[in-house]
Amino acid sequence: EPIPQSWDKYITGHLNPNVDPAQEFTGIDMRDPNGITPIQAFFANLPGYENISVKYVVIRNALVPPNAAQQYSMKLVYSDNFYKIYQLPNPKSYFQVADDSCTVISSTRYSASTNCSKPSELIRRELYTSGWTAYINGKAVPVVSTSGGLFQQVSVPKGRSSVKFNYTPPHITLTYVAFGLGVVLIIYSVSRKQTNKTSR
């Protein structure tokens, strides 16, 4: 499935302008060798990484600017002769409600429990693409995109709710039909060959 345009725009607008968004974003590639470096882009756009729930970053020792951890309030959680791993200070939660009217508990990327004092919106920081469905207390509800078009969002009611997400590739029914027809054609071809051999 093609990469959503919303993700392309987010990469160049909030993570690193010196990459080709059509390629897989790795955080280390450069479109222009004379442009901003990946490490410069990271520190310039650190909130953009936190907004997509990035909690840890791996940086080569030689690329870590002096006093970077203190300046950006990053916590060093691992270090060896080659790399350092930092914990970012304010990564957004994978599941988040739009206001303070709800509490959210989640144990997986595919389910969450909410307790709301009034109806609200539950944001799931997963790329919005076709094929996702959601179920609240067993009832199917539409999954829409957030205002920026980047993430998924569902409306949750007042009270306690169990929210589950499921992904089915678009046009999967046509795929199954095509597969079934292919099997039928193969069986027909084999049986016809066997019939021709028997009649000779």
Fraction of helical residues: 25-40%
Low-pLDDT ranges: 171-177
Distinct helical segment count: 5
Order of helices and strands: HHHEHEEEEEEEEEEEH
Rg, rounded, reads: 24 Å
State the strand order across the main sheet: 5-6-12-8-9
Strand tally, please?
12
Q: Give the overall pLDDT as a whole number.
A: 86
Beginning-to-end CA distance, first to last residue: 50 Å
Class from secondary-structure proportions: alpha+beta
The coarse silhouette is extended
Question: Main β-sheet: number of strands, strand sense, barrel status?
Answer: 5 strands, antiparallel
Brief sketch in words of this structure:
This protein has 200 residues and is of the alpha+beta class. It is 28% helix and 32% strand. The protein starts with a helix and ends with a helix.
Describe this structure in words.
With 200 residues, the protein is of the alpha+beta class. It has helices at 5-15, 38-44, 46-51, 68-71, 172-199, and strands at 56-60, 75-79, 83-87, 95-97, 102-108, 111-116, 120-127, 132-136, 139-141, 144-145, 151-156, 159-167. A 5-stranded antiparallel sheet has the order 5-6-12-8-9, with no helix packed on it. Strands 4-7-11-10 form a 4-stranded antiparallel sheet, with no helix packed on it. The protein starts with a helix and ends with a helix.
